[in-house]
Amino acid sequence: MQVEHPKQSGQSGQSGQSGQSGQMEHSAQLVAAIEQELSALFRRSRSASLRLARRVHPEMDAAGYALISQIELGTGNGAGVRASDVAHVLGLDKSTVSRGIHQLEKLGLIERVGDPDDGRARLLRLTATGAERYEAMRAQRQTEFRAILDRWNPTDLADLGRLLARLNADLG
Length: 172
Hints:
- With 172 residues, the protein is mainly α.
- 67% of the residues lie in helices and 9% in strands.
- It contains 6 helices and 2 strands, in the order ααααββαα.
- The protein has helices spanning 16-56, 62-74, 83-90, 94-106, 128-149, 154-171, and strands at residues 110-115, 118-126.
- It has a two-stranded antiparallel sheet with strand order 1-2.
- A hairpin with a 2-residue loop joins strand 1 (110-115) and strand 2 (118-126).
- Helix 1 packs across helix 2 (62-74).
- The model is unreliable at 1-13 (pLDDT under 50).
């Protein structure tokens, strides 16, 4: 994404008003270019999610990949995660998450277990098979990312990480 910088006001004899107009136009061009690049990234991400899902299980779809990723992330304490928490984090309706969870259960990738803190509630966690397949996919994905990002210099990597974190915070 390369957009030329507008001339600084005063360099071309423009008034302050014209300089501000030029800066606003330049800002609009930058935002449009960023939006275009993000759209391309989101398209690639959707396609990649399906490929990654198929690595975990040939019958899993991209929505299942988002669910299993969140379940794995939320199971850091080992007990599991509530379906309602998965729905909230992903911004999905509970019924949508319920259908996806049912599919992942049928595939043998996740299971429901009792909540040790609330005997009435059920938690979701990966089965041994689900955890093994998910970890194999994650290791392969990280190898692919490293192959791409190893060509970047450390300053660019730090900037990318910082700016993505900022964008995610602002979007959230």
